[in-house]
Design brief:
With 502 residues, this protein is mainly β. It folds into 4 domains: 27-194, no CATH class; 199-323, OB fold (Dihydrolipoamide Acetyltransferase, E2P); 330-412, Copper binding periplasmic protein CusF (OB fold (Dihydrolipoamide Acetyltransferase, E2P)), CATH 2.40.50; 420-500, Beta Barrel (OB fold (Dihydrolipoamide Acetyltransferase, E2P)), CATH 2.40.50. Helix content is 1%, strand content 49%. It contains 1 helix and 33 strands. The chain has one helix at residues 164-167, and strands at 27-29, 39-48, 56-68, 71-83, 90-101, 103-120, 126-130, 139-143, 148-150, 155-162, 171-172, 178-179, 184-189, 197-208, 213-220, 255-260, 266-268, 285-294, 314-323, 330-336, 345-350, 361-365, 371-374, 379-380, 390-398, 404-412, 420-431, 436-440, 445-449, 454-461, 463-469, 479-486, 492-500. The strands form 4 sheets. The protein has a 5-stranded mixed barrel with strand order 27-28-29-33-32. Strands 14-15-16-19-18 form a 5-stranded mixed β-barrel. The longest helix has 4 residues, at 164-167. It is globular, with a radius of gyration of 23 Å. 47% of the residues are buried.
Length: 502
Amino acid sequence: MRASLATISLLALALSACGGGGGSAGVQGDAGTGPAASHATVSVLITDAPTAGWDQAIATITSVELIGGSGKVSLFSGSRTVDLLRLRDFSELFAVSDQVPAGSYSKIRLQLADLVLNRLDDGGHVVESTRPQLVGNGKIDLNPRGPFTLSGGDVIFVELDFDMDKALKLTTTGNGKIILRPVVFVNIRTAQLGGRLTRIHGEITDIDAVDGALRLCQSRFASGGPDVQPLHAGQDADDDDHDDDEGNHDPAGTRCVTVRSDAATGIFDADGLPQDFAGLAVGEEATVVGRLRPLDPQPIPHHDDDDFGYDHRLALDAVVIEEGPLGTYRRIAGVANSGVDSSQVFGLDVAAGQGFGTGTMLPVQLFDSSRIFNRAGHELQPADIRPGVAALADGVLQIGSSDLLRSPLVILDAGPAPGAAQIEGPVVDIDTVEHSLRVNDGSADRCVDAAQAAIFEVTSGDGFSSSRVGLGDLVPGQQVSVFGVERLDGCLAADTIIADGD
């Protein structure tokens, strides 16, 4: 039976440049076309766009695969749980495989086993929780416009962007269940990851003081285990026997990256105060925020007969290094109520759902080595912190007569985009010259500017499949969902169009 656009899971796929290419992978069939000993390294990262309405989106992922003409390669198989809404401003390193055979691949398959949506009160307690029905048993196929080829020795990054703000159109079915339509963008890159920063938490296992570099071996997701997770994969809503951190310890065994610092890197101790690189020590935990890329072809020089830099293929150019176990630095969201004053302090009106009382205001202390970015990963300046700007501050909270948050990193504009709009309905007509179309929203024909839109066609069946298409591939009468911003002339400037291909 043909599923309607309002109830099926919708997927979006955005494919960037691919080619140019460690963990282990299982190979089913001869997926690659090159010799068995010729392998590429593929890293899987997860991120999300901010959303309104829900405070947690706790997803359990059981597999990620690359599919070629001759078989499948497993990038991840197991069970890992992550709160997608904690990833609204950074990418989480989810899995790494250095056993991907060289060859041509045409599809990425993701298996989502469970999703729990929570609303929290001001104190951070769950006040509403629901587990949407995963249509197609959660199998998600992402299809680029054409195959991409991996050669032996290549290092690539596959970034899965769960856009929950577009995904959370929920439809109540006859039996009271709720059906979710996930929207997942995929970016495949070979060079340094642009856009959002990457966070990796782990143990410092080696230090090269001469080059200002260290080896960081990931031990837990930087986003941490969900603070509140009443529903787990495979549990019923009335099953209260659960562990809040289940599935988040040791997320993938040991994955190590070379962390490189420079003069601009902010290095902070466990008290939230700036320190020199020399203050870091082997055996300590740290969270590093920066830009992930392939390691240079030549490893950094090693000293004193160690093998620093030779056991992994990933490098993280550090923006900030936060010393201490996971949780030493809190991430506190809110809205700035002032600019940055002469003592490098600004006021933050704390948002609800974080364990603070209603109306809490925190002074945020910046330092010369603190860094400021927007959610897209562009670096900003203290002058960009102004009253009314949404902010998300990393920091160590100092409790006393005057509470203070010592912050090495602030992300601005971390909330949903203002003025976002959506229309749904059949396509009336298409103008490929003007890059526009008209859609009937049920009350009138609406003009849509598609010049900057990513367009995807979705089909349902044994799971769900999403393919990137062009404006000319759409046809009159086809059902579409259009996401974008309303213009003053009454047209919708679209950033995403999702079309029903069934």
